[in-house]
Amino acid sequence: MPELRRDPIVGRWVIISTERAQRPTDFRQVAPPLPTKPLCPLCPGNEAQTPPEILAYRAAGGAPNTSGWSLRVVPNKFPALQIEGDLGREGVGLYDRMNGVGAHEVIIESPDHKTTLASLSEKQLEDVFWAYRDRILDLRKDGRLRYILVFKNHGQAAGATLEHTHSQLIALPIVPTNVLNEIVGCREHYKDKERCIYCDIIHQEISDRSRVVGENSEFLSIAPFASRFPFEVWVLPKRHTSYFEESQKFQFEALARLFSDTLRRLDRALGTPPFNFVLHTSPLHERTGEFYHWHIEVMPKLTQVAGFEWGTGFYINPIPPEEAAAFLRDAEV
């Protein structure tokens, strides 16, 4: 029968609806690719089609905003927020407002127009994580900014508007509610038990094994107990660490290995599905070191969020995470 499961971090409930269950193979995607534009602004040779680069990796050197790069970071041409100006916080009767100050950047993960994040080499993927780190370290010097979210929309159904592989970074003058809820849940658990709740989850999942997707010496990937979406996967560092940007080289190397393995399993099992991933790390200027634990959440876009979900905040997931994890473990990569 259907089962209600509660996320122990934020208290969110999900419905594992076995009555609506589908076989894992029913989720395989046969989706058309994004339309290829005649002139891709993210391809080498088209550097003038983007704003001037903020960061680039070039093994052989070379001038900024020219070809020869292996990874490039540029401001978003149509930014959600703008870096110039002051916050201008004010009250308007009952309401609060501030200026849309922040940063919105695009991380171009490869010069190859046709590659995907899953097909990058482990070294290329490691460089992507280094780029995230470099940009977070630079932006956290700005006292106006309080949180930096790194995310990726892969595939048209997941919100991608360009085919060329890229991820995005948005630096905000506020801490998002979703992150605040995680922090509150982590703080309460720590206050009661003097332990990090993510560390407790890692220890339990390693012991139980039924929801483990992959593992190496430094990282664990799991289908979370209260998965909101079919084949949702979390990637967590085994060592307690609150700030992604404080990771060391050996950790980025291990993260690249396991994250690459996880994405390739999703591609193999589900037929290259569209997906979103988000990096959840600590706010820039808050002390969360004892109780918060950074992690990456990967959410394949296989079902639609509809009226029930919007009206209740519940999610309906037709695949038990134990079954999803087993299916991904069995995928040949």
Describe this structure in words.
The chain has 333 residues and is of the alpha+beta class. 26% of the residues lie in helices and 21% in strands. It has 6 helices and 15 strands. The chain has helices at 122-139, 177-193, 197-208, 249-270, 307-312, 321-330; strands at 3-6, 13-16, 55-57, 71-75, 90-92, 95-97, 103-108, 147-154, 166-172, 212-215, 219-222, 233-237, 275-280, 295-300, 315-317. The strands form 3 sheets. A 10-stranded antiparallel beta sheet has the order 3-4-7-9-8-13-14-12-11-10, sandwiched between helices. Helix 1 (122-139) crosses helix 4 (249-270). The protein is globular.
Terminal CA distance: 33 Å
- Secondary structure tally: strands: 15
The rounded Rg comes to 20 Å
Strand content: 15-25%
Q: Helical element count?
A: 6
- At CATH level 3, the topology is HIT family, subunit A
CATH architecture, please? 2-Layer Sandwich
Low-confidence stretches: none
What is the number of domains? 1
Major beta sheet summary: 10 strands, antiparallel
The CATH superfamily turns out to be HIT-like
The succession of helices and strands, N to C, reads EEEEEEEHEEHHEEEHEEHEH
Estimated structural class: alpha+beta
The best one-word shape is globular
Specify the helix fraction band: 25-40%
Mean pLDDT: 91
The CATH class turns out to be Alpha Beta
